[in-house]
Every structure is written in structure tokens, then in C-alpha cells.
Amino acid sequence: MSHMKQSECLDNKTKVVKPEVNFRFFLQLFWATFTLSIFTFGGGFVIISLMRKKMVATLHWIDDEQMMDFVTIAQSSPGPIAVNGSLMVGYHLAKLPGALVAALGTILPPMIILSLVSLGYEAVKDNLWIDAAFHGMRPVVAAIVLQVTWVLFKPLLAKKKIIPLLMFALSFVALYLFKVNIMLVMVICIIVAVIVSLVGMKKAGLR
Amino acid sequence: MTVLFQLFFSFFQIGLFSIGGGYAAMPLIQAQTVDIHHWLTLTEFANLVTIAEMTPGPIAINSATFVGMKVAGLSGVLVATLGNVLPSCIIIIILARLYEKYSKQTLLKNVLENVRPVVVAAIFTAGLALLQLAVGSISLENLQLDIFALIVFILAFFILNGKRLHIGPLVLLVLGALVGIGYELVQQYLFV
To answer: Does any CB of chain B come closer than 8 Å to the CB of residue A146?
Structure first.
């Protein structure tokens, strides 16, 4: 079984069939991203792995290598990873209309669900028992977020490089103690990151 | 009209600056909706994050829809969501075109690696704000510590961080809700 997958991967240049762009295809693309979005709890990386399953293994629209590149670009660009991934796949298959259809399929389910939740929330927000439930859930959410922080922080520590740790410390002090606007901190850091990257790449190139 | 424009522009900024997925968007959403525009209180924001964790879809889209509906109804939902995904659409389509031409871009990868520490710091700050809200203020002159919430937090953190118990965030949230209701029941009926 795994051998078959391997060979499929190897000659995927011939196996992958870029679908014909017609109304049926757009319907199929919309339905694929819509169902992916509905059944994905728990963040962008989950949807990306499900998307790979659908687009590569089931529909054979793209190959594994392309999917990996799409994931890299999706997770390193601004915006929700799931939306970015859909846009990449959609654009690859059918240019701008494909990208827009795929993105629409991805954002419609959360829009519909949260609209309903929002209307319901206004009705029940002063309910004692709903309040009690949130009383129990709020510390759990804090734990989820801080545990994610810890998971992301560990690789920074492991690299033992000064600049990343310094950037972490400085931006934390700016954000937490001095309440500097986060957009401002991000812009400054992106500028610093571009300079650091360019200098680093130049050094690597000179060697 | 101005509210719709503010919604659009706020969520446009959130979309533009949230690099690295849902948790990176969270501090930005807090800044825009709580600190700058006062569309939500900090408690409402914490509840929104809880709801977003429990429902499918990206947290930024969930927030845009929730806040849009609260501030300006259905048109608010559309404007906020559109604002949120527009930066993605523009940037990804440019990158997709470049990808079809060049396939790899090392500078982007390098830059994003260097931006990462800031994103972690921002998530950490937002996490601390959520923790403070959940367990109460920890200052010397005004010590109002919610012991119940603190215990729930510590348990949840170690369950998530541990490798033995495979309890996902969603299940943990449901457990948290049940514990919260149970605690309220005990307070209502045992300590009257």
C-alpha cells in the first residue's frame, strides 16, 4: 500500500490531472472547501492537513510537493492559514475565479455559524448558568493560549540565538509593560527583520 | 456608515498583520475591538475567544462575524469579513503568481522567521490578559484571586502540556463549562 503511494508520488507529474475549468468544476471546488471548513475544528494546521487529503489524495488536482509549497506560503503570509491555503489551491487550478470561489467556500461556514451564535449570545449573555459555564471555560482558554505560547517559545530557546530572544524580550516589554500599539511594534519588527535577513543572506552569499 | 468603514478598516488591519495563524490574530483582534474601538468588553472578548475555539473556522473570521453582527448587523458581518480576507486575497494572489514563476522565495521565509519572536511575545501578552481576566487581579493592595479559576487554569495547562492525557482543547472547554456550572450549583445550594 505504501509502495503504491510512493510510486504515485514519484510519477505524479503524469498522475495529477488539472481539471477542466467549467461550471461543474467551480461547484466541485466550492463544495470541497465548504465541507472542509465546516468540519474543521482547532485551527489552520488541521484544515491544511485535511485539504491535502482532499486535493491530493482524493481529487488528484495537485501533487504533494505543490501542496507543501502552498502550506509554506499560506502559513507564512498574513491572514488566516485556511483562507490562504484555499486561495493558493484555487488560484493554481483556475486563476482568480478559482481563488475567489475557494476562499468563499472556506469563509461561508464560520460566517453562518458565528452569525447565529452572535444572535443567540445577545439573548443568553446575562443568564446565570451561561455565565457559570464561561466562568469555567475562561481559565481553560487562558491555559490553551499560554500553552501555545510555551510550544512556540521552546524552539526560540533551543536555537540559542541572541537576536530572536532579544526581539522577544523587547517586544514583550513594549507590549505588556508600556502598552505600545501592537501594529506599531509589528511594523518596526518587520523592518528590523528585513534588514537582518538581507544582511544574513548577503553574508551567506559572500561565503 | 462610519461604523461600517471602521469595521472594514479594523479587520483589514487584523488580516494584514496576523502572520502565522489564529493565535497570532488574537492580540490584534483584542487591540482593535477592545482597546481602540470599545466594541467589546474584555470579558466579551474572552467569551468570543472561547466561542471561536469551539466552532469551526479561523478565529479572525469568527471574530469578524461576531463583532460585525454585534456592531452593525448583517451588513457589519459582510464588511468586517471582507475587510479581514482582502489582505490575504491580494497578497496570496501576488505570491501565487510569483510561485507559478519562481516557486521559492527565500527572503520571505527569512523575514518571517525573524518576525516570529514578536508574534510569540504578542500571543504571550494576550494570554496573560486572558489569565488576569479569568483569575482576577494579582496586585498587592487589591488581592482578589479567584481560587476556583486558578485551579482550573493550572489543571488545564498541565493536561494540555502533558503527553499522557490526550484531551483536546474542545473537550477541555466542555469540561471547563461543566465544572463552572457544577461550582455554581454547589455555591447556590450548599452555601445558602
So the answer is: yes
CB contact under 8 A, B70 and A118: yes
A94 touches chain B (CB under 8 A): no
DSSP state at residue A19: P
User: Domain for residue A163, yes or no?
Assistant: yes
Q: Are residues A27 and A59 in the same domain?
A: yes
Please give the Cα distance from A72 to B29 (Å, whole number).
Answer: 24
Q: Which of residues 40-79 of B touch A (CB under 8 A)?
A: 46-47, 49-62, 65-66, 69-70, 74, 77
> Domain containing A146: what range?
134-206
Distance of CA A66 to the CA centre of its chain: 16
Q: Which residue type is seen at B73?
A: G
Q: Do residues A36 and A118 share a domain?
A: yes
Residue B170 CA: distances (Å) to CA of A45, A110, A143, B142, B177: 16, 16, 13, 34, 11
Q: Does A192 touch chain B (CB under 8 A)?
A: yes
Last residue of a domain, one of A124, A153, A180: A124
Pick the last residue of a domain from A124, A155, A182: A124
| Judgement on whether residues A139 and A98 belong to the same structural domain of the protein | no
Nearest to A167 among B60, B118, B134 (CB): B118
Give the ipTM of the model, two decimals please.
0.80
Contact A111, B84 (CB under 8 A): no
Residues A6-58: tens digit of each pLDDT: 444 444 444 788 888 889 999 999 999 998 888 766 555 567 767 887 888 88
Neighbours of A180 (CB within 10 A): 14
B98 to chain A, any CB pair closer than 8 A? The answer is no
- Number of structural domains (chain A) is 2
